[in-house]
Amino acid sequence: MASSGWYADPLGRHEKRFFNGLVWTDRVSDGRRQASDPIGRPSLVVVPTRKHAPDLTTPPGVVAPPARNGFAVAALTIVALGAVIALMMYIGVSFSRITHPLREAFVSSAPSVVDAHPTRNRVHITDCSRIGDAGSAQAAGTLVNTGSKEHAFRVTIAFHVGKITVVSRAMTAPLTPGETGTWMVRDLDVSFDPTSCTVVTPKITSP
Fold first, then answer.
1. How does DSSP assign 18-47, residue by residue?
2. Is pTM beyond 0.85 here?
3. How far is CA 111 from the centre of its chain?
4. What span, in angstroms and rounded, lies between the C-alpha atoms of 54 and 45?
5. Which residue has the higher pLDDT, 47 or 68?
6. 80 or 156, greater pLDDT
7. Which conformational region is residue 36 in: left (phi greater than 0), alpha (psi within -120 to 50 degrees), or beta?
8. 48 belongs to a structural domain
9. Domain count, the chain
10. How far apart are CA 206 and CA 115, in angstroms?
């Protein structure tokens, strides 16, 4: 499992997004500027008579750590980095020669996010139900990282009821090669009891 920290934003909306060791949070950064941008759940309700897709909301389980902890860590990091730079300037070490390999090591350690393939990643649905008597649809299950690298996986689930299909996505924590992980999808924008749930095969095959 990857440790908590700032990594390249898997959604591509910002330079970096904070991973708290379990899930991706809504804390993002662009350069030195930090902000909050909820991951949301890109969902699409395929109903012939409905003109607009529902608003995106933050999926359960994505909880950003308290802001004060983030600022404290950032402040300590800046102080430590300043001390290192001052020391290198004092002893005459070229900063550019040091930062380049460090940057490469940081980028290479960032967990990537790939689309889960139903058969290749052995995606198994263990729950397809409704939350309460009048709640939203939810699905949960497991998958296996059958690749040779550590990845977090994006699982796409289609909820079915009659002629209505609701497609929602969830993201797992980073999994090492051969590791089995869990996922859970909840669509808070609609309320129905799904008759079945299926795993959607990604259009572009991930590595």
1. EE-SSSEEEEEEETTEEEE-------EEE-
2. no
3. 10
4. 7
5. 68
6. 156
7. beta
8. no
9. 2
10. 6
